[in-house]
Amino acid sequence: MTISEMNFFQRMVYIVQQYGMSLLEGAGTTMAIAIICTLLGCVIGFAVGLVQTIEPHKNSNIVKRAILKVVKFILTAYVEVFRGTPMMLQAAFIYYGTAQVFGINLGMWSAAIIIVSVNTGAYMAETVRGGILSIDPGQREGARAIGMSQFQTMLLVILPQSLRNIMPQIGNNLIINIKDTCVLSIIGTVELFFTFRSISGALYTYFEAATVTMIIYFILTFACSRLLRWIENRMDGPANFDLATGDTLAFTSGLVRYDEKRGGTH
């Protein structure tokens, strides 16, 4: 039986049988790029977001203020440019531009990681900035009041709370990167979408190949979303916790549960 004589489901089975390993390799490349670039993008985003939230000390001289303002302007420009342009054009600009202007021929992995990481970092920078600003100013004031330096306050008090607030967005960026790696096919990166194009072009079974590829994408994103939801729940801690005190004269130990509806404890 030729492929033209097969029905829709038979073609899907044929594609899986003949090109299953190629699809799995493409999915593996997609996941590797998405995970690596999300982690690197988070590092970039945290660095940029932290700098954007720095306020000059009232005793700082004019030179320090000017340098900080210039750095913030450059970082803001970076964020706005990479958030305001499509990643497909960014991929072509970086991959072909570095070769034409600077004579640097980036490999497949190098180009893919640079492109997706820089793009993710721009989105994460705004997320981190918003997460830091969302923390109550009293947290910062309290930390400084007990003698913490500005660095200690940010590292030990502000960032841990901010991380929990922005964790859903980090997971969202990972899922977006899993899907958006398909734009890397424009520079020849052999990921899942590139494999789909190769299969559909060879067999002329665009609908069937697209269906199989969409199922794989859905499995990847759904598994990641469930895993990230589990991590978020673990970061929240238990719903019930025990209050302990070092005062032997006052018995305050006991189970306390946070009442989400009333916004208090009982």
Can you tell me about this structure?
This protein has a three-stranded antiparallel beta sheet with strand order 1-2-3, with no helix packed on it. Helices cover 72% and strands 5% of the residues. It has helices at residues 8-53, 62-83, 87-101, 108-133, 137-145, 150-180, 192-203, 206-236, and strands spanning 240-243, 254-259, 264-265. With 266 residues, it is mainly alpha-helical. The protein is elongated and about 80 Å long.
Features:
266 residues, mainly alpha, 3 strands, 72% helix
Mean pLDDT: 85
Number of strands: 3
- How would you sum up the major sheet? 3 strands, antiparallel
Based on secondary structure, the structural category is: mainly alpha
Membrane topology: Multi-pass membrane protein
Subcellular location: Cell inner membrane; Cell membrane
GO molecular function: transmembrane transporter activity
GO cellular component, one term: ATP-binding cassette (ABC) transporter complex
Strand and helix map with partners:
Layout: H1 8-53, H2 62-83, H3 87-101, H4 108-133, H5 137-145, H6 150-180, H7 192-203, H8 206-236, E1 240-243, E2 254-259, E3 264-265
Antiparallel strand pairs: 1-2, 2-3
Helix pairs in contact: 1-4, 1-6, 1-7, 1-8, 2-4, 3-4, 4-6, 5-6, 6-8, 7-8
Quick summary of this structure?
With 266 residues, the chain is mainly α. The chain has helices at residues 8-53, 62-83, 87-101, 108-133, 137-145, 150-180, 192-203, 206-236, and strands at 240-243, 254-259, 264-265. A hairpin with a 4-residue loop joins strand 2 (254-259) and strand 3.
